[in-house]
């Protein structure tokens, strides 16, 4: 079990609800503690990972400052609180999805459930946004639309000139 936990320490968490297995917002990290007999114990904690896009990509709908505040305060607090709540518990080596399921406790949520679920939401959002919106495709389509608009404008100006020329031309 220790070897398995140590082997998986730098692997990002994946979501078992999505078959794509996209990289999530949280990842396992290795924490080593020595005990009286110098035994090595490896436990997993959740850590906030940067989103898969720049923090100002949501502008003008959400400012970079708002996004940074939300991640830096609210989401950071959820991650830290979850780590405190599962520290030393049987849930210490579970995936985030497993923590959500176990702490739901058949409809009687345990204290760690809210923080685990709150940590699951940005993972879901990032995964969904990455799947639904390809910023490269959006940028390419925008450039094509701008080029077409410029071509239409040039064509309309050409037609206006022709019309003026026809009106001025003696019959």
Automatic annotation (TrEMBL):
A Pfam family this chain is assigned to: Sod_Fe_N
Molecular-function GO terms, alphabetical: metal ion binding; superoxide dismutase activity
Region (Disordered): 150-171
Skewed-composition ranges (Basic and acidic residues): 150-165
InterPro entries, alphabetized: Mn/Fe_SOD_N
Manganese/iron superoxide dismutase N-terminal domain mapped to chain residues: 45-103
GO cellular component, one term: chloroplast nucleoid
Record-linked PANTHER family: SUPEROXIDE DISMUTASE (PTHR42769), SUPEROXIDE DISMUTASE [FE] 2, CHLOROPLASTIC (PTHR42769:SF3)
This protein's name: Manganese/iron superoxide dismutase N-terminal domain-containing protein
Lineage of origin: Eukaryota, Viridiplantae, Streptophyta, Embryophyta, Tracheophyta
